[in-house]
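> forwarded from #structure-qc
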């Protein structure tokens, strides 16, 4: 239904423990959906694989402006995939990415994306253990953003 949806613009599926498989289905729908502008998937246990699927969808989706992936324990590797998607995505303005254990390396990947991405205006990286090195990378990226 989400693939062919023409009217729903905001969808909140937070706190539903949908898991990786459902995240994959949502990602597949996002690749074709032309109406959804806001998607909340926080606290859903989508994990790294689910986040990678969402990242692939972000590379081609042209309508999503706000995405909340908080509390999904995504990790550094999937943060890299999200960062790569941010380099290509031209519509996302807000990304909520808190509590995802991305660490300093994940923060570095996001920082590299910020150097290229020109649409993101709001980014929440709270509680990701990015430490001093990760914060430094983000700060340096903001000089070029």
């Amino acid at each position: 239904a989400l693939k062919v949806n023409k009217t729903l613009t905001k969808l909140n599926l937070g706190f539903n423990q949908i898991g990786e498989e459902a995240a994959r289905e949502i990602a597949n729908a996002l690749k074709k959906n032309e109406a959804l502008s806001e998607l909340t998937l926080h606290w859903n246990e989508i994990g790294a694989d689910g986040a990678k699927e969402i990242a692939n969808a972000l590379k081609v989706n042209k309508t999503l402006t706000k995405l909340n992936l908080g509390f999904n324990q995504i990790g550094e590797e999937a943060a890299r995939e999200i960062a790569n998607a941010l380099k290509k995505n031209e519509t996302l303005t807000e990304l909520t990415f808190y509590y995802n254990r991305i660490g300093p390396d994940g923060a570095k990947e996001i920082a590299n994306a910020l150097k290229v991405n020109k649409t993101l205006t709001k980014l929440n990286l709270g509680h990701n253990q990015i430490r001093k090195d990760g914060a430094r990378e983000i700060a340096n990226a903001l000089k070029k953003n």
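QC bot note: Helices lie at 19-32, 47-58, 75-88, 103-116, 131-142. The longest strand covers residues 10-12.
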